[in-house]
Backbone:
């Protein structure tokens, strides 16, 4: 019961601080970690220890699934080369660099223990990365690379972690066997994820006009995928990511509009709560970690933590710039989508490389992996340096979150990277494409009623829409050539009038609800239809910058 009370208390703090962070434009992960630190040192509050099983089994699958389901497969595939370089080779390179540093500079660290520490702190975190870069207006390809890296790198790091821990507990390690095992674990995890994704896609196809069940299935799929892979000791992380990508790829075909609307609201709320809870939990762990150190000199091990943090940051910077030079991160082969706004302005290439190099925040995966270290070795003796590894991991997480999280917006301003709205012009192009083809369908399609007046009315409607869209697209292109900001057109009188009518109807509906002249069921149905109509109107209202 005490734990439940502290969970409710943390949720109240989370909601309050998030509102403050949004109003003040402050990176909310940093604010929540700091709040967790403060809460953790309040003596009246009970300790809430971070259970690694809760992180890996309950929190991680939905967080990864949500991030993967929002990732475009086309963009992910186009950026697979830099994503692989960061998510696989950089993880192993960081693991090795940290291991070498720990072995030569931290007393008592053997090679196996040093590699355990390296594997723990090597992967940037998907939760931290998506939270830090959200709303910064970065180039779409930069976002794809950072989010794609954070989706895949956990698998690389956790596999390296598994073998490093086995080397400590058993005293044996064979490199070539570990390499083959890595390919098996990763490949089988991806295969299980793809199969699971297609099975759920088939289930969604069979379910018609039942948005509640469809939404519930989206909650179930990441856990089924993760547990199915982990049951056979394959990569649950890659399984969930693969399931999310498959679902996102087939979503337009299998989800009804009602299911999409319900699922979007549900998942936005769930991910908001999980994100916030994770960051507060990270801060809450410090008092417990310090107590676990016993009489170990705090200032000394803090210095080691800062050293390891500097190594992880520096290695990433060097690797990304070397990779940008040798692999040509942001140029690559030209594809048919390179004309889109998100891929323009090649003169900013080096700025994008700087952003990728600096965005390497660690998070809950590193801390959970450290806390999951076994207490005892195979012979029954305590796991050596366990508390030191946990503390060092916490320092790396805190330093990367605070230093990189707070400085990234400033870095973007110093580099003079203009925030990009990559969807507006492309959205108008898509609407024009749909309107043009719809006009030809009305003119030639046999499915439309043979009523001549109806056809002429529909054709006139789409002719006007095509004309308006064409004018807007020309305005955007002209403003872009002149390097001017496109100002939103004023609302037309009909739209303003309809919004005023909606306000009147809602007030009238509230009055009828209070008077009880109509049943609640009927009122809720009419209210739902009004919600949908108002959403459609709201999408047409020009947004102020």
Residues:
């Amino acid at each position: 019961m005490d734990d439940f009370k502290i969970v409710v208390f943390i949720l109240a703090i989370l909601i309050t601080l998030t509102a403050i962070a949004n109003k003040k434009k402050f990176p909310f992960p940093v604010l929540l970690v700091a709040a967790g630190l403060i809460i953790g040192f309040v003596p009246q509050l009970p300790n809430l220890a971070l259970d690694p099983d809760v992180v890996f089994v309950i929190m991680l699958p939905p967080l990864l699934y949500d991030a993967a389901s929002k990732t475009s497969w086309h963009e992910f595939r186009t950026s697979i080369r830099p994503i692989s370089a960061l998510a696989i080779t950089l993880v192993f390179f960081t693991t090795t660099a940290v291991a070498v540093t720990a072995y030569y500079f931290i007393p008592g660290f053997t090679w196996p223990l040093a590699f355990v520490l390296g594997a723990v702190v090597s992967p940037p975190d998907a939760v931290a990365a998506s939270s830090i870069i959200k709303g910064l207006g970065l180039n779409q390809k930069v976002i794809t690379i950072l989010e794609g890296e954070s989706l895949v790198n956990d698998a690389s790091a956790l596999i390296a972690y598994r073998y490093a821990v086995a080397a400590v507990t058993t005293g044996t390690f064979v490199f070539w066997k570990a390499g083959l095992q890595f390919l098996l674990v990763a490949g089988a995890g991806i295969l299980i994820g793809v199969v699971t994704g297609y099975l759920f896609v088939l289930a969604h196809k069979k379910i018609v006009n039942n948005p509640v069940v469809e939404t519930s299935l989206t909650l179930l799929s990441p856990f089924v995928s993760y547990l199915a892979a982990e049951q056979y000791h394959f990569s649950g992380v890659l399984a969930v990511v693969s399931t999310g990508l498959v679902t996102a790829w087939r979503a337009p075909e299998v989800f009804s509009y009602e299911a999409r609307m319900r699922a979007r609201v549900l998942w936005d709320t769930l991910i908001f709560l999980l994100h916030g809870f994770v960051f507060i939990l990270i801060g809450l762990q410090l008092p417990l970690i310090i107590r676990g150190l016993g009489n170990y000199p705090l200032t000394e091990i803090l210095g080691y933590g800062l050293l390891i943090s500097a190594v992880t940051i520096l290695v990433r910077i060097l690797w990304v710039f070397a990779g940008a030079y040798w692999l040509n991160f942001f140029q690559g082969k030209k594809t048919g989508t390179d004309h889109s706004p998100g891929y323009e302005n090649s003169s900013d290439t080096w700025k994008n490389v700087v952003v990728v190099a600096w965005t390497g925040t660690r998070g809950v995966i590193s801390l959970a992996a450290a806390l999951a270290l076994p207490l005892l070795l195979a012979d029954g003796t305590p796991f050596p340096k366990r508390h030191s590894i946990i503390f060092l991991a916490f320092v790396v997480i805190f330093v990367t979150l605070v230093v990189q999280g707070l400085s990234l917006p400033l870095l973007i301003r110093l580099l003079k990277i203009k925030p990009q709205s990559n969807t507006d012009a492309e959205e108008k192009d898509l609407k024009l494409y749909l309107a043009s083809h719809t006009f030809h369908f009305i003119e030639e399609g046999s499915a439309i009623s043979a009523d001549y007046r109806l056809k002429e009315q529909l054709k006139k409607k789409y002719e006007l829409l095509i004309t308006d869209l064409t004018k807007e697209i020309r305005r955007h292109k002209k403003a872009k050539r002149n390097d001017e900001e496109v100002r939103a057109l004023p609302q037309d009188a009909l739209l303003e009038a309809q919004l005023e009518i909606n306000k009147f109807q809602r007030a009238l509906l509230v009055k009828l609800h209070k008077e009880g002249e109509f049943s609640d069921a009927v009122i809720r149905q009419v209210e739902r239809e009004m919600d949908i109509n108002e959403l459609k109107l709201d999408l047409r209202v020009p947004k102020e910058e």
Summary: Confidence is low (pLDDT under 50) at residues 332-345, 484-490. Residues 491-545 form one domain. The radius of gyration is 27 Å. The chain has 20 helices and no strands.
